[in-house]
Each structure stands twice: as C-alpha cells, then as structure tokens.
Design a protein that fits this description.
The protein contains twelve helices and two strands.
Length: 309
C-alpha cells in the first residue's frame, strides 16, 4: 500500500496550500487589486524555477519554436487560473472553492478530445454532468433571511479558472513526452514569468499593490509564497510517484479526497487557529458543501472506474 501513502500525501499537501492561499488573501491581500500582488509573487517564483531548471537540465533550447510557443501559452493559462482562483477566494470560503477543481477533468475531457484526439465514453459524459451538477449546488447559498440565492460571480470565476487549468494541462501534454518533462516545464514557467511581466507593465494598480505588500510584509509573504510553491511541487512529485506504482484511475480517485481534507483543515483552524482561517460551520452552511462534495466525488469516480449511475 506504499502507493496509497504517496497518493494520499499529494492532496494533503495541496490542501495545505489551499489553506495558505486563503490566509494570504484574507490577511495580506485586502483592498482593491491586492490579489494582483500575490499573482506577481507567483510569477516571480515561476521565473526562479525556470532559472533552476536551466542550470540542471540540458537541451532546453532544442525544443522547436512551435512547441515552445504552445508551452509558453500553457504558462499564460496557468497564471490565468491562479488569478481567477485567488479572486474567488476574496469573496468565498476555501472549502467552497476547492471542490470546483473536481470539474477540471470535465473540461480536460473536452479539450483532450479537441487537441489530443481522445474519445469520450458515455460514462465519462454522464459523470461529467454529475460533477457539474454538484458544482452548481455549491453555488447556492441560504442567507440570514433564509432566502436562497445563486452565487453567479463565484461560479463564473471558478468555471473559468477550471477551464484555464484544463487548457494548461492539455496543452502541456500535447507537446510533452516523458523524456522532455523538465525541458517542457522550463518553457511553461517561462510563460508564467512572461505573463507576470506583462501584468507588471500594463497594470499600474497591480504594481502599486505589489510594492505596498513588499513594504508592509514582504519577507513574510515571500516566504509563504515560496513555501507554498515548494509544497505544491512536493504534492506533484508524490502524485507522479504514485502513478508509477499504481493504476492511474486509483491515484486519481485518492486525489478526490482533497476537498474533504480542506474542509477538515478549515474546521481545525476555525476551532483552534482562527487567525489563520475561520469559516461558519452551522448546519445551514455545512450541509450544501457535504452534499455537493458527495455528488461531485461520485461523478468523478464514475468517470474513472466506469461505474453505472
């Protein structure tokens, strides 16, 4: 069961990053355009990672121009989903945001069909509809007056974020083979850095927010961002290692625990460390999340294993 420990370690690490993101947005990114500062931090980390890859990996310039452009474009999409995800965290709890990432394979199936020629089975299509239905449930909220409203803005942000994330993954796979993983990663991170540079040049408000964040808590925020990136890469490593030891479908099924882990972590933080993250855990707030997570998990598992719904 060694593969299971690696497969489970990945969503645990990713969940910790989600909590860190919520902390950064709530405590250090308040005010108009402040999320832009965090985006620029992520871009800087991308440049550093590209530089490190260039030092240790040979042949990074042997990639043809066509593939370089596609990989750079995937880097732009990677920053796109980060921006929308952080924007959504400004107005919604992290435990309501993270389950949306279960829809990434739904859009991934569509783009893989378009770009990679992969086929969609009937079970995959049904499972995709179930996952999207669960996402819609997450977007309904009962307010203090017991009136139900649909959180349109959050839903649109996270759907767009997941579309960008799916495009990022599919385009990366489109031009990457096993032996060129690090070379492709170099050009992807170059794209991430260029996207950040474009934002720096074109958006004065983001530059001001970045400068303000550096002055008021730069070292702390930089440390948190770098640590988050390192933890994310650690999760990616554990996930990829698990894929070498077990069938892909089993590893992907374990990854569906991430929203549940995030919910558990937010509960612990709310009870014991509210200065990190604090959410409402009344029955009215908790039940829609649990129901939506259950539906989305069933939908994703049915796609992976071919269960009949």
């Amino acid at each position: 069961m060694t593969w299971f420990l690696y497969a489970l370690g990945a969503p645990v690490l990713w969940a910790l990053v989600n909590i860190a993101d919520q902390y950064l947005v709530n405590k250090h990114a308040k005010g108009e355009h402040q999320v832009g500062a965090l985006v620029l931090f992520s871009s800087l980390v991308g440049i550093v990672v590209a530089f490190i890859i260039a030092i240790f990996v040979n042949g990074i310039f042997e990639v043809n121009t066509h593939d370089r452009l596609i990989l750079i474009l995937s880097g732009f999409f990677s920053l796109g989903w980060i921006i929308l995800y952080l924007k959504a965290l400004e107005i919604e709890d992290v435990s309501s945001i993270v389950p949306w990432f279960l829809t990434i394979p739904v859009f991934g199936y569509i783009f893989a069909y378009i770009f990679l020629g992969e086929t969609l089975t009937q079970i995959q299509m049904i499972g995709s509809i179930v996952v999207l239905f669960g996402g819609m449930i997450l977007s309904f909220e009962v307010n203090e007056e017991n009136k139900v409203r649909f959180k349109t803005k959050v839903a649109l942000m996270m759907i767009s974020s997941c579309i960008f994330a799916a495009l990022w993954g599919v385009l990366f796979k489109f031009v990457t083979v096993e032996d060129s993983f690090w070379v492709s990663s170099f050009w992807e991170y170059i794209g991430l850095g260029l996207a950040g540079l474009l934002i720096w040049v074109s958006m004065r408000s983001y530059r001001k927010a970045f400068s303000h964040m550096i002055k008021t808590g730069g070292n702390k925020i930089l440390t948190l961002n770098v640590s988050s990136e390192a933890v994310t890469m650690g999760g990616n490593f554990m996930n990829n290692f698990a894929l070498l030891l077990a069938p892909v479908t089993l590893v992907f099924l374990v990854a569906t625990f991430q929203p549940i882990i995030v919910l558990g972590l937010t509960f612990i933080c709310t009870k014991f460390f509210p200065w990190i993250v604090e959410e409402k855990f009344t029955k009215k707030h908790l039940m829609p999340k649990i129901v939506a997570m259950g539906i989305m998990t069933v939908g994703r598992r049915s796609k992976a294993l071919g269960f009949k719904i």
